[in-house]
Amino acid sequence: MTRVASGEVIWVVKLGGSLQDTEYLGAWLGGIAEYGKGRVVIVPGGGPFVDQVRNAQKRHRFDDGTAHSMALLGMRQYGIMLRGIQPALKAAFSIRQVRRRLHDREIPIWMPAQSTGGWKQLPRNWSVTSDSLALCLAQEFSPPRLALVKARSPPDSSTGNPREHPGLVDRDFSSLRRRLEQAHKQATTPTRVVWLGANQPRLLQELLTGRSAVGTELLSEELRD
Predict the structure, then answer these.
(1) pLDDT score of 64
(2) Could you give the 3-state DSSP secondary structure of residue 74?
(3) Residue 177 in contact with residue 188, Cβ under 8 Å?
(4) What is the pLDDT of residue 17?
(5) Residue 41 sits in a domain of what CATH number?
(6) So what's the pLDDT on residue 38?
(7) Residue 25 and residue 151 in contact, taking contact as beta carbons nearer than 8 Å
(8) For residue 4, how many C-alpha atoms fall within 13 Å in the half-sphere facing its CB?
(9) 200 lies in a domain?
């Protein structure tokens, strides 16, 4: 766990692939470019690029390990697209490069390769998606902070129960979160995870500056099976 030299609290922001089908993707990228220097790491979702992997696997019946490697490349494709839309984003191909970008007051967008390196606790199947990968990346910083930006809007009330929204996160997310927090309980505060809807890019500045609690908190106990 590290804090970059700037002393900023780092937010890992996972931009869901479904955002590309909304009118808000440009607003999110513009807000991150304006407020996120040295503060934000973007994790790209998979969107249609990963959907193609699912379709190919159904047709050709190759194993989940192969599909997992292909899905990581699908995330990378989405990341390249986001960087093409917003040139202020800087590609980072490793955790070390992510930290260097943050140290230099840049905005890294993590480009996963075919392997996720030292995250041995992650299975190589469809129980893990970019949600869980973003959760692991958030654990690299102290305090760990993760914003999941979804096309689906949160409940009107900030106390809305995420259990009313099945399929919000991947199948392994809640158990992985508990394992990570148990492993790091002596080293850090619990991971804060918030859910932001596609139409809430205006909340980004408040989230980054910590002026108020924004978004819908995803509490560990609310995500348990």
Answers:
(1) 94
(2) helix
(3) no
(4) 93
(5) 3.40.1160.10
(6) 96
(7) no
(8) 26
(9) yes
Domain extent, residue 201, equals 11-223
Which of residues 218 and 153 earns the better pLDDT score?
153
- Counting the structural domains of the chain, the total is 1
Non-local (6+) Cβ contacts of 62 within 8 A are 56
Give me the long-range contacts of 63-70 (CB less than 8 A, separation at least 24). Answer: 64/124, 64/125, 64/126, 65/124, 65/125, 67/125, 67/126, 68/124, 68/125, 68/126, 68/128, 69/114, 69/115, 69/124
Residue 182 lies in a domain: yes
In a domain, 2, yes or no: no
11 SS3 class? strand
Residue type, 221: E
Q: Residue 172 pLDDT more than 50?
A: yes
How confident is the model over 17-53, as pLDDT tens digits?
999 999 999 999 999 999 999 999 999 999 899 999 9
